[in-house]
Design brief:
alpha+beta; 4-stranded mixed sheet; globular
C-alpha cells in the first residue's frame, strides 16, 4: 500500500529514499541534483509530491521534485 501525503509517523520508519525530477527541471546539472535531492529529503515536509511505499523493513520515500519545491528549499535556506 502506498501513501501520498507527508506523514511524520511514516518518516520515523523510512529506510530508503528515491528522487524523481519533474520534466521542467531537466536542465539542472547532475551535481546540483545531488545537493538539491539531499536538501529536499532532509525536509520532506516541503515536497509537493511525496509517496511512501511499504517495504519489508520499513518505508521507502519517493519525492518528485518540482520547481515549487526548489523555491521552498531556497527560501528556507535564505530565511533560516
Amino acid at each position: 500500500m502506498a501513501y501520498d501525503k507527508y506523514d511524520p509517523r511514516l518518516e520515523s520508519i523510512v529506510v530508503e529514499t528515491s528522487t524523481v525530477w519533474s520534466p521542467e527541471l531537466s536542465n539542472i546539472t547532475d551535481q546540483d541534483k545531488v545537493s538539491l535531492a539531499r536538501a529536499i529529503h532532509e525536509h520532506p515536509e516541503l515536497a509537493t509530491k511525496i509517496r511512501y511505499e511499504r517495504m519489508h523493513t520499513g518505508m521507502m520515500r519517493e519525492i518528485t521534485v518540482t520547481v515549487a519545491d526548489l523555491e521552498r528549499v531556497y527560501a528556507m535556506r535564505l530565511g533560516g
